[in-house]
Amino acid sequence: DRYEGFWISPNGKQVAFEEVSEAHIPQFRIMHSGSESVGDDAQEDHRYPFAGAPNPKVTLCVVSAVADTSGTPPVTTFDLTGPFGEDFYLARVNWLPDGTLIAQVLNREQTELALLRLDPATGAAKTLFTEKTN
User: Fold this and answer.
1) Does 9 or 2 have the greater pLDDT score?
2) Integer CA distances (angstroms), 128 to 82, 103, 116, in order
3) pLDDT number for residue 1
4) Burial per residue of 32-49, b for 16 or more beta-carbon CB atoms within 10 angstroms, e otherwise
5) I need a surface site. Which of 6, 21, 59, 134 has the fewest CB within 10 A?
6) Do the beta carbons of residue 21 and residue 57 sit within 8 Å?
7) Strands (E), the chain
8) What is the separation of C-alpha 119 from the centre of its chain, rounded to a whole number of angstroms?
9) Mean pLDDT on 31-55
């Protein structure tokens, strides 16, 4: 299980973070049957990707965590779509001792996993290997 959406580099100078956009996913109303409340208090609206519909769009980025007086630090964004296209799951992210990142991505069916090496200095993403299960 993964409960983090950000990862601090071992030297503390960079932060990798996940951006998620669900703006393209329609909202779905959930009614709270049996609730003592009525009207707006008895319902919630959530964006819900139904089966076969697009999932949220995921991006992995890195930014400097070192204070700088020149303004907003630049953000490096990685293209994780190489192995499986736009519809994938970001399963795991880890920093390596050399300052690069490893990311595990899964296809939507979760039958294939790709291990990517990501270089924060260049934004390059390289697929190291893929695994497939039946």
Assistant:
1) 9
2) 12, 10, 6
3) 63
4) eeeeeeeeeeeeeeeeee
5) 134
6) yes
7) 6-8, 14-21, 27-31, 43-47, 57-64, 75-78, 88-95, 101-107, 112-118, 125-132
8) 17
9) 80
Q: 100 falls in which pLDDT band (50, 70, 90)?
A: very high
Is pLDDT of 54 > 90? no
Are 95 and 16 in contact by the 8 Å Cβ rule? The answer is yes
Q: Which amino acid is at 74?
A: P
CA-closest candidate to residue 47, choices 21, 65, 28, 67: 28
Is residue 16 a contact partner of residue 62, using CB atoms and an 8 Å limit? yes
What is the Cα–Cα distance from 59 to 73, expressed in whole angstroms?
Answer: 18
Contact (CB, 8 A) for 12 and 1: no
